[in-house]
From TrEMBL:
Gene3D superfamilies: Homeodomain-like (1.10.10.60), Tetracycline Repressor, domain 2 (1.10.357.10)
Protein name: TetR family transcriptional regulator
Domain of life of the organism encoding this protein: Bacteria
The HTH tetR-type domain, residue ranges: 15-75
Keyword annotations from UniProtKB, A to Z: DNA-binding, Repressor
Species name: Siminovitchia fordii
């Protein structure tokens, strides 16, 4: 076996160890919550050597932000759906579909999203990560609004970036309310109300 093959094997082992730590982290965070979870618990559950977790992650905050990317992937996929409507009706139908899928994705990860909410409140690193996630969504929504404005479907005088922020923050708050059980899980009603409010104000 030559050096390149040995390196490849070592890299694969490192990737597997990292994956094991992330899986263990998810399990520990779900059981203990963010504040009570420790790297020692994660290391033990992953069956890795003492301190191995610190080779891959600076601390539990760092590991948690990696988990957040995985959790948010479904939502990124929803936000990344093509948006090129030719009519107001087409736009509304797509907005309604995306809004429902966004909320549904959060509910599918309900228990983990509760931990995310807790972590945002106590960790500056996680809060910064959430802000970068927000920025990614808002950027995409801004482009969608600019498209429909350019197409003559939406009111041109509106500031696309400002409307995008307002739309995302409204969805985010409702998403947290759904995850925390503060409003009923009637996704159809929630999605229809939000979408009609948004489309009714933005579109001509």
């Amino acid at each position: 076996m030559d050096g390149s093959e040995q390196m490849s094997k070592r890299q694969l082992q490192a990737l597997q160890t990292r994956e094991n730590l992330l899986n263990a982290g998810r399990a520990v965070f779900l059981e203990k919550g963010f504040q009570k979870a420790t790297m020692t618990q994660i290391n033990k559950l992953a069956h890795t050597g003492y301190g191995t977790a610190y080779v891959y992650f600076k601390n539990k905050d760092d590991l948690f932000t990696e988990l957040m990317e995985t959790i948010m992937q479904k939502m990124y996929d929803v936000a990344g759906l093509p948006f090129h409507p030719r009519t107001k009706e087409e736009a509304y139908a797509q907005i309604l579909k995306q809004t429902r899928l966004f909320m549904q994705s959060a509910l599918e990860e309900k228990e983990m999203m509760k931990v995310v909410k807790e972590a945002i409140g106590v960790s500056a690193i996680v809060k910064e990560k959430w802000n970068s996630i927000r920025a990614r969504f808002i950027s995409g929504i801004t482009k969608d609004i600019q498209f429909v404005q350019d197409a003559g479907l939406a009111i041109e005088r509106f500031d696309a970036a400002l409307i995008a922020k307002g739309w995302f923050y409204m969805n985010e708050q409702v998403m947290w309310d759904l995850v925390l059980g503060e409003i009923e899980e009637d996704l159809d009603a929630v999605s229809e109300n939000l979408s009609e409010l948004y489309a009714g104000g933005l579109y001509k």
